[in-house]
Design goal:
By secondary structure, this protein is mainly α. It is 97% helix and 0% strand. It contains two helices and no strands. α1 (2-118) runs antiparallel to α2. It is rod-shaped, with a radius of gyration of 48 Å. It starts with a helix and ends with a helix.
Length: 181
């Protein structure tokens, strides 16, 4: 009977050892699975942090581009207003030039009438020459003013073209950035 109990005790002990071994193997597999899950969680956390950093960076860039766009639009409006004012000034100068040309033609008509009426009187001729000289000086001034106005208009248009080009480049950058989000 003693032998039976010893054998039974050995068998129970061996069974318990087998249960322990099975549990150790199962625990090792679970530890490996937990380690793998921890690595995946760490990788996902790293990716999330990187995505949040990029999102903040993109927000700052969008804000900067929005401010820059507003500045360019303000400059474009200013340039357009200046160009409109220059156009109005050009029209006014054109009217002035037309007025002086009309006055010149009237003076020429008066001169022709005087020559017919008086003949070739030197006094009237000198007066008329002085008048024509003054009118020529006025026409010369108006011509210079027209050249200056044309130069100012060309400068304003060049500035407007440059600002428009900058604005278009900015819009392209903004659109690229918006598409990449």
């Amino acid at each position: 009977m003693k032998r039976l109990l010893s054998t039974l005790l050995v068998l129970v002990t061996l069974g318990l050892c087998a249960v322990c071994v099975v549990q150790w193997v199962r625990e090792e597999r679970l530890r490996g699975h937990i380690a793998e899950l921890a690595k995946r969680l760490e990788a996902e956390n790293t990716a999330r942090v990187e995505a949040e950093r990029k999102a903040a960076e993109y927000e700052k860039e969008i804000e900067r581009l929005t401010i820059l766009r507003a500045e360019v639009e303000a400059k474009l409006l200013t340039a357009t207003q200046e160009l409109t004012e220059m156009g109005a000034d050009s029209v006014a100068r054109g009217y002035t030039l037309a007025f002086f040309l009309n006055e010149l033609m009237q003076t020429e008509a008066k001169l022709a009438a005087m020559e017919n009426a008086v003949g070739k009187g030197t006094e009237a001729l000198k007066d008329h020459n002085a008048s024509v000289t003054a009118q020529n000086a006025t026409i010369t001034k108006q011509n210079e003013l027209l050249k200056q106005l044309a130069a100012e208009r060309n400068t304003a248009i060049e500035k407007l073209n440059a600002r428009t080009k900058e604005f278009n480049e900015l819009v392209e950058k903004y659109n690229k950035l918006a598409k990449s989000r």
